[in-house]
């Protein structure tokens, strides 16, 4: 990535947050409930990333997502640690790709514990694919004007002669 002197990078202190230091199996075991628990924070972060087109402007939203994730796993540790560990261990040891199909029984036990203790139901299949409208308090970023260069190469006039390509089209295989 090429940077100029105009680019301001954030200080390291702005980027330092407590990490979510968990294994793949652990994150995968809690992923559905985590996605539902931190949905609002995650949607705000993703909206910021898409609208701003600059990750430096969304650092605070990212910190909120990380804090929400840490809060979620702390609550799981207090309420359902045995069931969660059993499910994560099953995912880790049952297949090489952390497949969920081998661990449906332990998943059911974990889901029941989450519903009873944290009142958090596992979202139905396809829940995260559904279209939603996210209401944000962040102001919409201003649209950048298209850059106009005074020394840009002029385009051909509309009435200019346009000869066919000397060696044919690159897209000859797409005709008909």
Automatic annotation (TrEMBL):
Predominant location category: mitochondrion
Alphabetic keyword roster: Disulfide bond, Electron transport, Membrane, Mitochondrion, Mitochondrion inner membrane, Repeat, Respiratory chain, Transport
PROSITE patterns: CHCH (PS51808)
Biological process annotations from GO: mitochondrial electron transport, NADH to ubiquinone
Localization: Mitochondrion inner membrane
InterPro entries in the record: NDUFA8
GO cellular component labels: mitochondrial inner membrane
Family: Belongs to the complex I NDUFA8 subunit family.
Function text: Accessory subunit of the mitochondrial membrane respiratory chain NADH dehydrogenase (Complex I), that is believed not to be involved in catalysis. Complex I functions in the transfer of electrons from NADH to the respiratory chain. The immediate electron acceptor for the enzyme is believed to be ubiquinone.
Protein name: NADH dehydrogenase [ubiquinone] 1 alpha subcomplex subunit 8
Lineage of source species: Eukaryota, Metazoa, Ecdysozoa, Arthropoda, Hexapoda
């Amino acid at each position: 990535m090429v940077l100029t002197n105009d680019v301001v990078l954030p200080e390291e202190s702005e980027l330092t947050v407590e990490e979510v230091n968990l294994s793949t199996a652990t994150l995968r075991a809690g992923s559905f409930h985590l996605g539902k628990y931190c949905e609002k924070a995650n949607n705000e972060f993703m909206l910021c990333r898409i609208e701003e087109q600059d990750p430096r402007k969304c650092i605070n939203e990212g910190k909120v997502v990380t804090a929400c994730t840490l809060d979620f796993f702390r609550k799981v540790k207090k309420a359902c640690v045995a069931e969660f560990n059993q499910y994560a261990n099953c995912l880790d040891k049952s297949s090489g790709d952390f497949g969920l199909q081998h661990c449906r029984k332990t998943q059911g036990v974990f889901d029941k514990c989450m519903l009873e203790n944290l009142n958090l139901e596992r979202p139905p299949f396809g829940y995260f694919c559904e279209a939603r409208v996210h209401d944000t308090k962040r102001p919409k970023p201003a649209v950048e004007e298209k850059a106009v260069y005074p020394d840009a190469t002029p385009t051909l006039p509309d009435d200019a002669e346009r000869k066919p390509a000397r060696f044919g089209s690159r897209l000859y295989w797409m005709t008909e």
